[in-house]
Design goal:
Radius of gyration: 19 Å
Number of helices: 9
Low-confidence stretches: 4-20, 285-289
Strand content: 15-25%
CATH topology of one domain: Rossmann fold
Organism: Paraburkholderia phenazinium
Keywords: ATP-binding, Cell inner membrane, Cell membrane, Membrane, Nucleotide-binding, Transport
CATH class of one domain: Alpha Beta
Protein name: NitT/TauT family transport system ATP-binding protein
InterPro entries: AAA+_ATPase, ABC_transporter-like_ATP-bd, ABC_transporter_ATP-bind, P-loop_NTPase
Order of helices and strands: EEEEHEEHHHHEHEHEEHH
GO molecular function: ATP binding; ATP hydrolysis activity
Structural class: alpha/beta
Helix content: 25-40%
Distance between the termini: 39 Å
Length: about 290
């Protein structure tokens, strides 16, 4: 899913100033400031989901968001992408390198490939939503599909592909629109372990090739640590940032999904995040009884 966005496109009429905190980055590609949002149940009970939430994502930064089920992670993505409008607060997407309006690409767990379109046609769909496809776009799509090992299936249909191949097509579709920010909502959770590691490497390579910023929602702490520069732990109701963990790993050679997991700091980071997640889950369960 590709969502056009511009700075202030999801801003409420209420003016909110950014709050200085360790979660605010210079030259941000995403800024969330003073975010307030909630919902009303069928019996009329109003529940605050976010209250004064603040964080930002820097240029080329990969940030993972973890938290218990129901913490509001997917709702946060829907707010950032513009699928939902915040009740108050400010959500801004930074401008592109060429000065153009910021653009968000949203990749879900389901690849959402259209079965009547070929691999190449599916890859180009995001561009079609913005404008007419050019020969240059087709050449770029073929080049990117080749980079992901899909040259032999560019004219095949989705039903002929494995799960990992389908997700690579979806990733190609996501990246071809040259997004300022990529939102990944557990896109690899249904894949086998080997394929997940390969796709984690693909996403991390974005930093080297394009400097794209990425926000990942995942329940997998190992995945969050291996891929990210920072892991944000959401908890409570209303949701707040319980912890923000800068991920610094000493890897042998370039950082990959495998070498990150083998780094000496990995277990310590995992223990910290798991401890915070478990503590928050127990606290929430106790508050609900």
């Amino acid at each position: 899913m590709n969502t056009p966005n511009t700075p202030d496109s999801t801003t409420s009429s209420e003016s909110v100033k950014a709050v200085s905190s360790p979660n605010v980055r210079p030259d941000p590609r995403l800024t969330v400031a003073g975010l307030n949002h909630g919902f009303e149940t069928d019996d009329g009970v109003r529940t605050a989901l976010f209250s004064g939430l603040n964080f930002s994502v820097g240029a080329g930064e990969i940030v993972s968001i973890v938290g218990r089920s129901g913490a509001g992670k997917s709702t946060l993505f829907n707010l950032v992408s513009g699928l939902l409008s915040p009740q108050s607060g400010r959500i801004e997407v930074g401008r592109r390198a060429d000065g153009g309006a910021g653009r968000i690409a949203y990749m879900l767990q389901k690849d959402l490939l259209m079965p009547w379109r070929t691999v190449l046609q599916n890859a180009l769909l995001g561009i079609e939503l913005y404008r007419k496809v050019t020969p240059h776009d087709i050449a770029r799509a073929r080049e990117m599909l080749a980079r992901y090992g899909l040259t032999s299936v560019v004219d095949a249909y989705p039903q002929a592909l494995s799960g990992g191949m389908r997700q690579r097509v979806a990733l190609t579709r996501t990246l071809l629109v040259d997004p300022t920010l990529v939102l990944l909502d557990e896109p690899f959770s249904a894949l086998d372990y080997e394929t997940r590691l390969a796709l984690e490497d693909d996403v991390m390579a974005l930093r080297q090739s394009s400097g794209t910023s990425v926000v990942l929602v995942t329940h997998d702490i190992e995945e969050a640590i291996a891929m990210s520069d920072r892991v944000i732990l959401l908890g409570g109701r209303p949701a707040r940032i319980e912890d923000s963990v800068d991920v610094k790993l000493s890897t042998q050679g370039p950082r990959t999904a495998v070498s990150a997991r083998e780094a000496p700091e990995f277990r310590t980071l995992h223990k910290r995040i798991w401890g915070g997640l478990r503590s928050n889950t127990i606290h929430h369960a106790g508050a609900s009884t």
